Amino acid sequence: MKTKVLLDEEEVPKQWYNILPDLPKPLPPFIDPETRAPGVGIAPRIFPKAILAQEVSQERWISIPEEVREVYMLWRPTPLYRAVRLEKALKTPAKIYYKYEGVSPPGSHKPNTAVAQAYYNMKEGIQRLTTETGAGQWGSALAFGCMLFGLKCTVYMVKVSYMQKPYRRVMMEAYGAEVYPSPSDKTEAGRKILRENPDSPGSLGIAISEAIEDALTHEDTNYGIGSVFNHVLLHQTVIGLEAKKQMEVLGEYPDVICGCIGGGSSFSGLIWPFYYDKVSGKAPKNTRFVAVEPTACPSITMGEYTYDHGDTARLTPLVPMHTLGHDYIPPPIHAGGLRYHGIAPTLSVLASTKHVETVAYNQIEVFDAARLFIRTEGIIPAPEPSHGLKAAIDEAIRCKETGEEKVILFLLCGHGYFDMQAYDDYLSGKLMPYEYPREKVEEAMKRLRKLYPWLDEVKSRYIQ
Amino acid sequence: MKTKVLLDEEEVPKQWYNILPDLPKPLPPFIDPETRAPGVGIAPRIFPKAILAQEVSQERWISIPEEVREVYMLWRPTPLYRAVRLEKALKTPAKIYYKYEGVSPPGSHKPNTAVAQAYYNMKEGIQRLTTETGAGQWGSALAFGCMLFGLKCTVYMVKVSYMQKPYRRVMMEAYGAEVYPSPSDKTEAGRKILRENPDSPGSLGIAISEAIEDALTHEDTNYGIGSVFNHVLLHQTVIGLEAKKQMEVLGEYPDVICGCIGGGSSFSGLIWPFYYDKVSGKAPKNTRFVAVEPTACPSITMGEYTYDHGDTARLTPLVPMHTLGHDYIPPPIHAGGLRYHGIAPTLSVLASTKHVETVAYNQIEVFDAARLFIRTEGIIPAPEPSHGLKAAIDEAIRCKETGEEKVILFLLCGHGYFDMQAYDDYLSGKLMPYEYPREKVEEAMKRLRKLYPWLDEVKSRYIQ
Fold first, then answer.
1. Given Cys at both, which of A44, B57, B145, B175 links B115, Cβ 3.0 to 4.6 Å?
2. Dist. CA B66–CA B63, nearest whole Å
3. Cα(A383)–Cα(A364) distance, rounded to whole angstroms?
4. What angle do CA A274, A280, A286 make, to 5 degrees?
5. What is the span of the domain harbouring residue B258?
6. Does the reported pTM lie above 0.90?
7. Per residue of chain A (464 residues), what is the pLDDT tens digit?
8. Is residue B174 part of a domain?
9. Which of these, A134, A147, A129, A118, lies nearest to A50 by C-alpha position?
10. CA gap A66, A12 in Å, rounded
11. Low-confidence residues of chain B: pLDDT under 50
């Protein structure tokens, strides 16, 4: 029995798969809140043309530039594992597989898009990219991508993370990035916050505003984004394309695929190619796709599918997505990468048409799953992918009850070497479960409608 | 051009290579300081029979138990990379390859032996292993190995590390180990120190004493060791055996192999199989083996080749090795794994017969090399393997001057995700170079001879 399947680097995909032409219904457009009409807002001023083209492309297959593939080869193809010891511990007849993206130098799936974004910006003469980071995975990935293509990189890191997670900052600096605690005195947005509240701990919303302002006010500078946008999810499909080949080597095909969702990029990267199999009639099974979120940030399971801003400062256009409200304040849970108030528009479509199932777990359940995984498989997972792992374990336990020999695949999108504080809190009993209150969503939706009284009219025109 | 060579897991070696029958001269015996005659001291009371047999075996090939191979498959075979971007940055005609052991769950080469040791102890009915750890890599590896074979694991972690490196402690606890700051109140040795100095920061010497006493005083408990001993180096030869296959795939053979040495286990694991090629006449080249140590702990380049204890508390027998003196106090450098006063007896033989070259670098030079590697190859190396990397870079620069297209192989035995504090100190200019003073070695050797006035007599009988 094989423990893992490794592919030769010649099998790094040559094309990304784009789901747009295969969506069950067309993607609703972004809305400019000024004109209330479709519009992409500031996007053309902060993204290169190649990225803007990919964002709306109806081409099913998009070639991966050879220079990007060559960088991918530093860690791709990533391994596909069979979790033999986990299966034994669960006494399940199910087969559990996981695709492991933690082998990339920054330690997660994020460089799959960071490298591509850095490349396209470099090709169009951009000298520098800005971005925001909270937990630090995305900032690390963009710093890495920029370094390899000779771009400068500026990361606005939420101040409280900057203080509490110095090692993620050091990693970005080791990759040559400049990292500022946000709010900073580098931007008008930051200075305004600091004038009002010199002790502001910062937020992702503020950091996004700073990163975008920095890009807007410098001719040679663009902005890089880590999730939600179509082109980001597109770049992540190397995960699923490789996983399909690896399952083929094993003569297997998944019955169920589980992954965590924050903005939705890792989950989409894995499932899109399997979804393509399904809609094109090539899939040998009616595979289920299970998206897993924290009960502390239940964007799909509790949020409303409507139009909302992508950022707290409302710099982005209105995005058609499930949302908890753009003024959502993340509770202090450890899955930093999953604390985003919205999700990718494509994923919202797939969830609304029931092509994707959704489930939410609290962080205690998730760390219990992570501990079982560590004690059987050895790899220490990040808290984020442990959500997908928890769903896979629950599915395997159901198989034990029903006797079904299902093939379960989940995405281990990053390692937990930078999350040891979270494990310390968990192991010493300091973690608490947290359920985001439904009333808070309702209040946020009321505030949103007060801001845009015409929201439901636009919603009914474009969504559903 | 291939970036890396991955082998299928069926190619995980089935046998370890044992250098003892092929050494250029016989290994001098351990000496019992009481009797002044050959003797292994407490070894039979803290190691299982299978390990004791391997320690002195004259069999060239020793079968790897299938259960151990199956665990190896969780991360083995490890990748062999060509450092294409590093070559370009150096503008060298040389080809630089590296074998990467950082992909193991604990993040270094250490589990290659930890897993084997845990297995043999489990087979002989042992319930628990004890060990010491300073920087934490070895403790993490043994905790991992014990977990997978159902053994309990107790780690005595040098108190100052326990306080300053909580994340390594958490990693061991996540693997289910109990970790005590040493000196602890769990042993007589620890209590004695605490009575004399309640604020003792601990030392590796004290931690070793505690771990050994714990094993000696519990029937069901043995001790696990991370380097120096023959059986440990033997277990590491999976590294070199895989590297040879991977070079074969590429149609290459190394002219030079570089690696760091603390006790010598990772370096020996890589070079032994190539050394075998040489002595058996199978090597197509007269490969050079370069062992690299810090100028702060120059065991071979400055130490004397004589008999000395392996631990500060003098619990071990006298070991034939290059030594800085068993009372060596490590200066505060960041390559925690290289701060050992002695080296493996086999390596001492190979160095004394010039089969292995040795060189020492200070930590600034080493971190400069690490930074260049990070900025070209992306992987953040631990400070320890960055010593071998520095030697590889220097060799590549010499090739640039001579125009030689040498094939250089170095061992990247662990990642640096747990060493970000060291990188922060380096990047912010806080690191200092340090050269261990020759007088300190001379003083230590005087103390040793005062302790054992008969030392030179025994030395001349068995060494050289």
1. B145
2. 9
3. 10
4. 55
5. 76-107+231-449
6. yes
7. 789 999 999 999 999 999 999 999 999 999 999 999 999 888 999 999 999 999 999 999 999 999 999 999 999 999 999 999 999 999 999 999 999 999 999 999 999 999 999 999 999 999 999 999 988 999 999 999 999 999 999 999 999 889 888 999 999 999 999 999 999 999 999 999 999 999 988 888 889 989 999 999 999 999 999 999 999 999 999 999 999 999 999 999 999 999 999 999 999 999 999 999 999 999 999 999 999 999 999 999 999 999 999 887 788 899 999 999 998 887 777 777 888 899 999 999 999 999 999 999 999 999 999 999 999 999 999 999 999 999 999 999 999 999 999 999 999 999 999 999 999 999 999 999 999 999 999 999 999 999 999 999 999 999 97
8. no
9. A118
10. 11
11. none
Please provide the DSSP assignment of B54-103 as one string. HHH---SEEEPPHHHHHHHTTTPSPPEEE-HHHHHHHT-SSEEEEEE-TT
Residues 170-189 of B with CB under 8 A from A: 170-171, 173-176
Residue A40 lies in a domain: no
Count of the separate structural domains present in chain B: 1
For A379, name the nearest residue in chain B, comparing CA atoms only: B105
DSSP-derived pairing of the beta strands A37-38 and A31-32: antiparallel
Please give the full DSSP string across A74-85, using - where no structure is assigned.
Answer: TTPSPPEEE-HH
- All residues at 6 or more sequence positions from A439 whose CB lies less than 8 Å from its CB, including other chains: none
Number of Cβ within 10 Å of residue A28's Cβ equals: 22
Identify the DSSP state of B405. Answer: -
Tell me if A203 is assigned to some domain. no
Give the nearest partner residue to A378 out of B9, B144, B379, using CB atoms: B144
Q: Which residues lie closer than 8 Å to A373 by C-beta, 6 or more apart?
A: A83, A86, A379, A381, A386, A389
Chain B positions touching A176 (Cβ under 8 A) are: 375
Collect all residues with Cβ–Cβ distance below 8 Å to B359 and sequence separation of at least 6. B290, B291, B292, B293, B301, B391
* CA A141, chain centre distance (Å): 12
pLDDT in tens, B408-420: 999 999 999 999 9
Pairwise CB contact (< 8 Å): B167 & A74: no
Cα distances (Å, whole numbers) of residue A319 to A84, A341, A454: 42, 12, 15
In a domain? residue B202: no
Residues 88-127 of B with CB under 8 A from A: 103, 105-107
Model pLDDT for residues A363-385, shown as the tens digit of each residue: 999 999 999 999 999 999 999 99
For residue B147, give the 3-state DSSP assignment.
helix
Residues in chain B: 464
Strand, helix or coil for residue A325? coil
Greatest CA separation for chain B: 63
For chain A, the first-to-last Cα distance in angstroms comes to 46
We report the CATH number of the domain holding residue A397 as: 3.40.50.1100
Q: Which of A119, A125, A135, A79 is CA-nearest to residue A102?
A: A79
d(CA B411, CA B43): 30
Taking alpha carbons only, the member of A76, A77, A460 closest to residue A305 is: A460
Which of B12, B70, B82, B170 would best serve as a mutation to test chain A binding (most A beta carbons within 10 A)?
A: B170
A424 touches chain B (CB under 8 A): yes
The pair of structure tokens assigned to B240 is: 């070199």
DSSP letter (8 states) at residue B291: E
Q: Could you give the count of Cα atoms lying within 13 Å of A103 in the half-sphere of its Cβ? A: 24
Which of A106, A147, A374 is the closest to B375 by Cβ? A147
Number of H helices, E strands in chain B: 19, 17
Q: What is the pLDDT of residue B330?
A: 77
CA atoms within 13 A on the CB side of A269: 33
The span from the CA of A297 to the CA of A384, in Å, is 12
